[in-house]
Amino acid sequence: MFERPKSGERAVLVHLDLRQESEREDLGEFKELVASAGAEAVAVVSGSRQTPEPKFFVGTGKAEEIRQQVEESEAEVVLFNHALSPTQERNLEGLLKCGVLDRTGLILDIFAQRARSHEGKLQVELAQLKHLSTRLIRGWTHLERQKGGIGLRGPGETQLESDRRMIGLRIKQLNKRLEKVQGQREQSRKSRRRADLPTVSLVGYTNAGKSTLFNHLTDAHVLAADQLFATLDPTLRRVELPGGYPMILADTVGFIRHLPHDLIAAFRSTLQETEDADLLLHVIDASDPERQDKIEQVNEVLREIDAHEIPQIEVYNKIDCVEMAEPRLERDESGRVRRAYVSAVSGEGLELLLKAIAEMVHSDTIHRELRLPPAAGRLRAQLYEMGTVRSEHIDSSGDWLLDVEIKQQNFDHLRKQPEFTSWLESA
Length: 427
What we know:
- There is one protein chain.
- With about 425 residues, the protein is of the alpha/beta class.
- It folds into 3 domains: about 10-100, Rossmann fold; about 195-360, Rossmann fold (3-Layer(aba) Sandwich), CATH 3.40.50.300; about 365-425, Alpha-Beta Plaits (2-Layer Sandwich), CATH 3.30.70.
- The protein contains 14 helices and 14 strands.
- The strands form 3 sheets. A 7-stranded mixed β-sheet has the order 6-7-5-8-9-11-10, sandwiched between helices. The chain has a 4-stranded parallel β-sheet with strand order 2-1-3-4, with helices on both faces.
- A hairpin with a 5-residue loop joins β13 (about 390-395) and β14 (about 400-405).
- The longest helix is centred in the middle third of the chain and has 36 residues, at about 160-195.
- The model is unreliable at about 1-5 and about 140-155 (pLDDT under 50).
């Protein structure tokens, strides 16, 4: 939606240490975000406050310091590592005489650069418009007058009202388009459910190594880069587990602390792959000293999208960067796999991880040998449609002998159907 400069913008970064833990941000992560957006950080202004100041977010003295830095460094934009109100952005732009962008706007900009699929671009534009609609007044005060001229005099509407109306119409159009795309995605999910294929979704903090792990497990060529939000559009691939069991592996967008609510809402259909998964692989950077805080941030987002009750394996990645670390599995008191230590780059521990996945997703799978007479053709067709038949042959009496692997709940569902009961009760 927005045109970007061809070269990196010179940016002054602003970071405050605030008293409330819920409002604090990480400066190192902010610098990574700025680099991912393609901006050049020419200065960093930092400080501390008990609470944000209503007019400029920072105090008047700090605001003047930022203004001086902008002049000295000839910066084109000031980036805040915090969420600013529309009024604060407008006041700061009036004082600094350059663009001002808060943390949410910066993340939106990165997403706009990364979106590749039609759905991803629609989602980003929707989030951008929702964010922009509250900020239209910024820099647009010269448009507050009514349209005039011959034939246009009268009540009319201000240019600002006109633009708000146009943005509202565009948001409605985008929602309609996304509903259509989401319907197509839901059809794909229904097909996978009918085929009884388990779905395993990679989740985790951005830049934890999800795409590298995905590429190693699937031989795919998803972009894997040492930058935040390298992956935006979800990618799904079929993977064969030990024992010949198939599954669908989904690579999804990375999470980040204080992920903007507009983005969570806009990417609801993308995150649906996580909500509908049978198992989550929570990928964690084992070499990150702040990994525990990031684990909590990811779990918080999972709670927001109602995916926190899905079974989860914590995959501690990048053990090649940790001294004396070895690939292994850790289990809880009941014997279920809870953690796997791997290196997606070297491949260490990935065989163990695949075995753990097979164990988890097929824990409720039963193995049966069925003898079906020629009259059971409809049941045989359903078993094939569900993808549960591993082998079949016909005996001398003309009956089908089927070797099937099927989820217990699906087997129970078939057995409850009167026309199939007699053939499955003895199985």
